[in-house]
Amino acid sequence: METVSKANVFFNKGSDKWKTPKSLYEKLDGEFFFDDFDPCPIDWKEGDPDGLMIEWATNTFVNPPFSKLDDWIKKANDEWKKGKTVVLLMNAKTHIPSFHEYVLKSPVEIRFVKGKVNFEQEGRTKKSNNPWSTMVLIWRKEKSPGFIDLTFQK
User: CB 78: neighbour CB atoms within 10 A?
Assistant: First the structure.
């Protein structure tokens, strides 16, 4: 992982270290029962394991650096193919290549978050000046309840 410049992430003043609000995490955890594992912890520093290179837990929540969404979406899809459930919180950037390559071509559940998410930074909740809405992508071990397999059977 690398430091992000202001030019790459204009809305967050040069930092990808924005913590998920506790209430949002707890709501998702109550549904998915996440393992005690964070592939991209907010306190990550040089020399720590790279979440894009290591094995993830069986039920993983991910609030990835928004400057590298393509990499994290691909990794989430790869982990799902290993039989895991991955819940990924991200900007609603449906135009990025990974969204079309991995989300729309897999049985991923997409939930849009109503209103702006006020992420936490440096121990304080900050009003979001993020211009994007937020969505949650869910890759389930088992098929999503709304997923219908349209494979033709003879």
Answer: 15
